[in-house]
Amino acid sequence: MRKVVLITGVSSGFGYAIAQLLSKQGHLVYGTNRKEHLEQDGINILKLDVTRPEEIENAVRTIISREGRIDVLINNAGFGIAGALEDFSEEEALLEINTNLLGVYRCCKYVIPHMRKQGFGTIITIGSIAGLMGIPFQGFYAASKFGVEGFMQSLRYEVQPFGVKVVMVNPGDFNTGFTANRKMVRATATSDYQQPFRTTLNVIEKDESGGLKPHVLAKKVAEIVASKNPRHRYIVASFDQKLAVILSKIMPAKWFTKLIAGHYKT
Question: Which residue out of 16, 30, 110, 141 is catalytically annotated?
Answer without folding.
Answer: 141
